[in-house]
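Supplementary Methods S3. Input chains for the assembly prediction are listed below.
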Amino acid sequence: MNWWGKLSLPQTLTLGFLVIILIGSGLLTLPISSQDGTAISYIDALFTATSATCVTGMTVVNTALHWSIFGKTVILILIEIGGLGFMTFAVLMFVFMGRKVNLTTQLLTQQSLNLESFANIRSVVFLVIRLSLAIQLLGVGLLMVDFYPKYGLIQGLSCSIFHSINAFCNAGFDLFDNSLVQFQNDPYLLFVLTCLIISGSLGFLVWKDLLLYRKDHFLSLHTKLALTTYLGLIGISFIVYLLTEGNFSENPHLTLFQRLMNTYFMAVTPRTAGFYTYPYTKISMGGMFFTMILMLIGGTPGSTAGGIKSTTVDILLIRVWATLRGKRDATFMGRRFTNENISRSLTLVFLVFVVLSVATLILTVTESIPKRFGIEYILFDVVSAFGTTGLSLGLTPHLTLIGKLIFMVLMFMGRVGIFTVMYSLLNSKHPEDAFRYPKENVMIG
Amino acid sequence: MNWWGKLSLPQTLTLGFLVIILIGSGLLTLPISSQDGTAISYIDALFTATSATCVTGMTVVNTALHWSIFGKTVILILIEIGGLGFMTFAVLMFVFMGRKVNLTTQLLTQQSLNLESFANIRSVVFLVIRLSLAIQLLGVGLLMVDFYPKYGLIQGLSCSIFHSINAFCNAGFDLFDNSLVQFQNDPYLLFVLTCLIISGSLGFLVWKDLLLYRKDHFLSLHTKLALTTYLGLIGISFIVYLLTEGNFSENPHLTLFQRLMNTYFMAVTPRTAGFYTYPYTKISMGGMFFTMILMLIGGTPGSTAGGIKSTTVDILLIRVWATLRGKRDATFMGRRFTNENISRSLTLVFLVFVVLSVATLILTVTESIPKRFGIEYILFDVVSAFGTTGLSLGLTPHLTLIGKLIFMVLMFMGRVGIFTVMYSLLNSKHPEDAFRYPKENVMIG
Ligand SMILES: [K+]
Ligand SMILES: [K+]
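Predicted structure tokens for the full assembly:
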């Protein structure tokens, strides 16, 4: 058995992501990666590679101005690997090399895609890749309709490819000065982008269920929950932003339809995509706090999203409501959640709050806050990094070295999963304790 | 069976606190309660009564300047009722009237004091009351040593009584302009006050265990956990505040010993007492965020404290660590925590975060934030209200009507307990569901 055969599943996953980030950072630090041919500092290359692989989209240098075509291609490849999950690629390699997919790879792919059963992992992986590429190609075509007249063939095509990939993988890098603020009055572009964002953040399992529905007439509990939540959250977000930012007072020239379209865009992006048409530094305090909650919730598990994950929050809300109503079971659409699911969700949320609190506490000491901001200047970017959203109130480009290191850890935990990272660090073996201490109750709350 | 016999336990507790607050607010709104003989608006009287009964110490009018001797006495009585728990008083009344304590009252007292067993409720209640009064009397004597030379007999004595009660009950009302800022260079006073604060916030169960230790040689898991946490948190807080505020740059005249004493005072008060010698508007961002974490954690259950409660946080930290290490049981000093304890703790924390987030979101819309502050202006006071700490960055005296209502709900939930309030609102009956839906796993995190 070779040395990597001894690694646990979470360790292999964590290590795999780390290796990809390190290779990416090595490439990005080459002079060929930057437009002016001078090498960027290694920490900034590492930060960009982490941000790309973890599909976060946080930047310490301007993407359009700093990176060469080579650098941008490296970033796109990292995003694609991070978005589809590097395990999908591993399986693909096995298949191409004509070898049978072995059990370890199956287990890894399953964990990477958050699949619950072994059933035909190979066909699912192929489905995932074909579907992703098809949607991204379609995205390129639809974006070209808008970008070709504006930028011509070459620049229009590269711009379409870059933003199609970034929208579908929910990475949120852009080639403009100020994200998509200049496209406020371009409803077609905003609509295409939201479609790509939603396709990518629904998660592969939901897609699989939907595609096979005509044959199977079956939707898993996961798919039902994920879809309901997705629609519900977009609806609630739309209403909240209408109330807090609906007047778009900064932009009196927008028509009512354009305002509604921008509000809809705003409702779709903060949970993980990270594009914006309305600068978050000008948002109201209520809108800003609500955006933080959305970033913390994040997207569907098994998708390109980070954060706590929408279904996790659902389960907890349903469980709390059941507890308060004195019900034994937490149920949704005729199914009850397992105790393992619930206890794992609760532990996850508590762990996230501990990690984010510690990160924020350190950053309040190491980073400096401009006069016109309060603690939201740090909190917003911290939540954004963990949610792999990539929105910023302005802290990220000014991070200190310690700040950059903390943000890289947050993005990594957000994408790879806080449990996976923790398990690999602690190398837990899940032993059954032979001896148990006697139990005793203590007071709660 | 009379109508109140049909109320559930949580409903009786909630209703009891409500009635006391309403009576208090009625008295405080009388012209006789204010120094200038004019009636205060009812909402401000209600806010003060809630703040006193919930031992929070948040004020919308200056305590020393606005209230007459009568008004101050009403506030002190509300604090004493809130601090010792009105159920203690109910048992006392039964006892004085020569009647045997009935089962309902026992159950209520048990819930109110967070006792886990029925064992001699009557003797515990007497112990609680005797001990509390003894400590507060001792406090008055010790404070007189300081206040008598400064203010003379009458004013010194009333000042001593007021602050002894407020320190022991962790209420945090004060008779000065700016809490205890003028006593920065009075280490004796600060030391006496911290002793009173700690006595009150250890919780009655810990006191009982400690007092009976010479006879029983037994400490409950609760007491071991509570004491360890208490010492640990004071130690950690002392170090953190030394790092973030240790230089006390605003106060160059303080000696090293006085600085250490003020840092110690700062480490003891934020978890529930709410006195301060260093204005929190001048604190560093790191210190402020750390104070928010301390207020959220709160004190020991069964004490005068609010918040999530220290032992709850302990259990979760120990459980998360055990989960990450792959251990089956969460253990502490040779005892393991029950699953009921753990799941109740996790649910509590999640519920608290939902409630605080919703409250903050509404307040970001209804309240206005001064230029030099960010969202911490709202978050700090929200956490302070729920933790029944009573510290403020300045929002509380300027609250709108909606703001005052939200803060009253937060203080009430913090003191009475979020589960108790929720259970009474929803009137849950804890039925065993006869029919169960089939279970199904979904993806987590
Ligand atoms: K993103
Ligand atoms: K208090």
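The mean pLDDT of chain B is 80. Residues 9-425 of chain B form one domain.
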